[in-house]
Amino acid sequence: MTCQTAAWSRDVPVLAPDQEDAMSVYRVIDVIGTSTQSWEDAAATAVKTARESLRDLRVAEVVEQDLHIEEEGGEIIFRTKLRLSFKYDVAHAHVHQ
Question: How many domains in the chain?
Fold first, then answer.
């Protein structure tokens, strides 16, 4: 089971759940989890792996599911693409120029 990070990401401003009037920024990325067992296991693998390096992971949305079928009767690989959002931490942000 593996988790692959896709290249797509964006910053999305949303209301913080605990402060109605405050604004927060969440970063959104796509990840793909894989499993030989099920799409659910592939999604769980993606979230578990993402949690190891992302702080304040808030939402995981299933975007796409597909199968990779190995040739000559090989394994079937379940792939689940998730869109993850996590709170953008300005204090730890790196500026790219």
Answer: 1
